[in-house]
Write a structure and sequence with these properties.
The chain has 2 helices and 11 strands, in the order βββαββββββββα. By secondary structure, it is mainly beta. It has a single domain (4-134), classed as Beta Complex (Metal Binding Protein, Guanine Nucleotide Exchange Factor, Chain A). Strand 8 (77-82) and strand 9 (87-91) form a beta hairpin.
Length: 136
């Protein structure tokens, strides 16, 4: 496994490098589903996220505690940034070397609509369980 992973948006205006991590988290909250049209598949990074072409990144404050980033040129969704602890959730689909990726956790599982289901066995957290983690 490489020490880092590199990905990019559709047009290549933004390149992103993250520490190597094969664990994918999935969010089923209404905001993530509205933003991307379905569940949000992400690699969580507490540090080591680097951007090339950062001038092409637009950030939208989607709540008091987080921002969502996307490419200004092609509109590709890039990340969810949690301002409380500086953690990035980078979209798993940005990376070509995804053969080792595995879904490890699903959050807001009680908000998942009935029209899709993931077959992976994962740790599942409800909205209340996720929000309780922020109050600790």
């Amino acid at each position: 496994m490489n020490e880092t992973r590199t990905g990019h948006c559709l047009c290549g205006a933004v390149m992103i490098t993250i520490p190597a991590n094969d664990e994918v988290g999935v969010c089923h909250c209404g905001m993530c589903r509205r933003w991307g049209g379905g569940p949000f598949f992400a690699i969580h990074c507490k540090e080591g996220v680097e951007f090339s072409g950062e001038e092409n990144i637009a950030r939208f404050a989607s709540s008091d505690w987080a921002e969502r980033g996307f490419c200004r040129e092609c509109g590709t969704h890039l990340f969810y940034f949690l301002a409380l602890n500086g953690e990035y959730a980078v979209l798993a689909g940005l990376f070509d070397d995804d053969k080792e990726f595995a879904i490890k956790e699903q959050i807001f599982i009680d908000r998942k609509p009935g029209f899709y289901s993931l077959a992976n066995e994962t740790r599942n957290l409800t909205e209340a369980e996720v929000m309780a983690q922020f109050s600790e």
